[in-house]
Amino acid sequence: MFDHPEFDAHEEVVFHHDADSGLRAIIAVHSTALGPSLGGCRMVAYADGAAALTDALRLSRAMSYKAALADLPQGGGKSVIWGDPLHDKTDALVDAMGRFVQRLGGRYLIAEDSGTSVADMRRMAQYTPYVTGWTPGGESADGRTGDPSPATAYGTWVAMRAAWQRLSGAPTLAGVGVAVQGLGSVGMRLCARLSAEGARLIVADTHPARVDEAVRRFAAQAVDAQAIHTVPAEVFSPNALGAVLNAQTLPELQCRLVCGAANNQLATPEDAGHLVARGICFAPDYVVSAGGIIDIHHQRIGYDAAAATAHLDRIGTTLLDILQRAERQGLSPAVVADTMARERIERAERYR
Questions:
Q1: What CATH fold (topology level) applies to the domain 149-343?
Q2: Helix crossing, 208-218 with 185-197: angle to 10°?
Q3: Triad 157, 289, 12: Cα angle to 5°
Q4: Alpha-carbon span 158 to 151, nearest angstrom
Q5: Phi and psi at residue 145, in whole multiples of 5°?
Q6: Maximal C-alpha separation, the chain
Q7: Can you give the residue ranges of every domain in the chain?
Q8: Cα 89 to Cα 23: distance, rounded to the nearest angstrom
Q9: φ and ψ at residue 24, rounded to 5 degrees
Q10: What is the pairing mode between strands 177-181 and 235-238?
């Protein structure tokens, strides 16, 4: 564990197996320096246990950095369930996951992520109070369900507009080609905002029905999911799973900006330098996708729509600061963002 390449002084990594339900899960707590760790629960049919552990370690560290740069009083954690959400997820398994979270006594706060849902969070809340991203009763008076996806999509749009304006001087994304990879709960909502602004959409997803919906609603151009990164477009927006920027895909990019909500888009830290060498601007993914945890934070403290939106809008300001520092220092935005996040966490550590 301690010599794992993705281990980064994580405070706690807990493995759990529930024989009755078949649950095999890991909770990784990276840092609680700024507050209790928070992160989504991802359910994936991993190739093996090592892949599940790698995902948990990488994602929990990214959540710490995300919270730090979003000015949130919380740390970073993540949980992963090893299994196919379409075939292996049962009520008993979700119940067992809720009991697993409870065992950590509040050091980790769970939320939905790829392979889990708001309904799953509501079910887990029967067994632990340490569940976020859901609304008791199903829907609040103003129509919110607790799902953080709309805020994640909004924050991604804010970040993309800010980065594009810095690159081109254009105040909007009207007429800009955006290749959107992944049309899930975040990607589809992002497409809606981009279409309303007049962007030219190219889309791909492994689920044909989602692609058909985007073509119908937004007059998007559909391309093969394995080729979306190769199409000529000003912006490439990854919104599915991670490691999409790697030794194979990087030489094939035909964009000026990479900006999306997918976690851990860089397969290796060195890939950030390859983007710089090609003159492609990279918006660090954990900065871009912070909208979800910002929204969850405001749900926890008493939701005020104006305050939440103002906080989401600061994603663009933070990203511009990172891009400006990167340009002055001759570094990748990914390196600059990591440094800024670590500095904030280390300052908090000194005063614990």
A1: Rossmann fold (3.40.50)
A2: 20
A3: 175
A4: 10
A5: -105, -10
A6: 58
A7: 7-56+76-145, 149-343
A8: 9
A9: -125, 110
A10: parallel
Q: How far is CA 46 from CA 31, 56, 81, 82, 288, in A?
A: 25, 12, 9, 6, 26
Domain 7-56+76-145 grouped into CATH 3.60.40.10: no
Q: Strand 12-18 vs strand 23-31: parallel, antiparallel, or unpaired?
A: antiparallel
Helix (H) or strand (E) holding 81: strand 75-82
Based on the number of CB atoms within 10 Å of its own CB, is 105 exposed (0-12), middle (13-18) or buried (19 or more)? Answer: exposed
Helix intervals (H) in the chain: 49-69, 91-103, 118-124, 149-168, 185-197, 208-218, 270-277, 285-288, 291-301, 305-329, 333-350
DSSP 182: -
Domains 7-56+76-145 and 149-343 in one fold: yes
Helix, strand, coil percent content, the chain, rounded in steps of 5: 45, 15, 40
Would you name the residues annotated as active-site residues? Answer: 78
Structure tokens at 89: 């997820």
Cα-based distances in Å from 74 to 11, 81, 96, 267: 14, 23, 25, 26
pLDDT string in tens for the chain (352-residue length): 788 888 999 999 999 999 999 999 999 999 999 999 999 999 999 999 999 999 999 999 999 999 999 999 999 999 999 999 999 999 999 999 999 999 999 999 999 998 999 899 999 999 999 999 876 755 544 555 678 899 999 999 999 999 999 999 999 999 999 999 999 999 999 999 999 999 999 999 999 999 999 999 999 999 999 999 999 999 999 999 889 999 999 999 999 999 999 999 999 999 999 999 999 999 999 999 999 999 999 998 999 999 999 999 999 999 999 999 999 999 999 999 999 999 999 999 887 7
Rounded-to-integer distance, Cα 187 and Cα 153, Å: 7
DSSP 131: B
Report yes or no on whether pTM surpasses 0.85: yes
> What is the rounded CA–CA span in Å between residue 111 and residue 92?
18
Tell me if residue 101 falls in helix, strand or coil: helix
List the structure tokens of 318: 């933070």
